[in-house]
Amino acid sequence: MDLEEYQEERIEAGRAAATVDMEVVIAKTMVTKAFDNDIVDGRTVKAFRVVKRKLRKASNARKRTLTITEYLKLVNVAPVHLKAFLTLAFNTGMRTGELRALRWSHIDREKWVIRLPADIPKEKRAKAIPINHHVKKVVAKLPRAIHHDYVLTYKNEPIVTAGGIKKSFITACGKAGIPYGQHLGNGITFHDIRRTVKTNMLSAGMDKVYRDTILGHSLTGMDVHYISPSEEDLHRAMGVYTVWLDAQIQSVAHIVAQVNL
Q1: Which of 40-49, 141-150, 167-176 has the lowest mean pLDDT?
Q2: Same domain, 26 and 79
Q3: Does residue 232 form part of some domain?
Q4: Chain-centre distance of CA 220, in angstroms?
């Protein structure tokens, strides 16, 4: 079986084009290293040079966002540990891995800022995330373990795996009547919340610099050299988002309440 046949077989088996491309990239890297160390000859390397990727850049980029109604439905049916994850994610835009790694020592309760050290964010840069009243309320109710410093837990234990909340999230989606899964029509994933937050921040009128800074995205152009928002700036920007979010929640809360009757 050549690489083209392998790609087609994997896609027919239900694998995403992005996954197949990544498998080929990993294999190509291994073969290249083997060639550099005289383990394989040029014919092996040539096979990877002629193979075409199955995915055009960003052709499978997801655009799904959650509505405010969907978010409220999920929060209403979610177990306590998942409700905390949902609330923090929807109000901060933090990634699942950042939420799992969040420690009490990262939370400044005097200035109400989450300060993630550089080893946690995907970008490997420290970042400060202002806390609004929704997050304050949840954090105030969370128990603090004696034997570890993690904030978001399940049965008082850290959630160590990337898929640690996947099962409960899928269950919550079912109870809320929301399709789950990136391969399902209009289905959602937990990561879609991060996209939703950035979209909502735009709708709320938050400046791009503040959106990118809070979510950890890189500033571009001359902004990199000349713009450095303070924590006070970020708090004001978060206030803009929160006022908008509260208004949206208020406008649909009665609908969600009727559904839950």
Answers
A1: 40-49
A2: no
A3: yes
A4: 21
Instruction: Specify the residue for token string 């795996």.
Output: 161
73 and 121: one domain?
A: yes
Nearest C-alpha neighbor of 120 from the set 128, 132, 109: 128
Q: What are phi and psi of 180, to 5 degrees?
A: -115, 145
**Residues 76 and 38 placed together within one structural domain of the fold:** no
Do 21 and 79 fall into the same domain?
Answer: no
Give the pair of three-digit tokens for residue 163. 């898929």
pLDDT at residue 164, rounded to an integer: 84
Q: Which domain holds residue 46?
A: 3-50
Q: Name which residue leads in pLDDT, 4 or 63.
A: 63
Phi-psi group of 66: left, alpha or beta (phi > 0 → left; psi -120 to 50 → alpha; rest → beta): beta
Ramachandran assignment for 14, one of left (phi > 0), alpha (psi -120 to 50 degrees), beta (any other): left
pLDDT exceeds 90 at position 99: yes
pLDDT confidence tier of residue 229, bands split at 50, 70 and 90:
confident
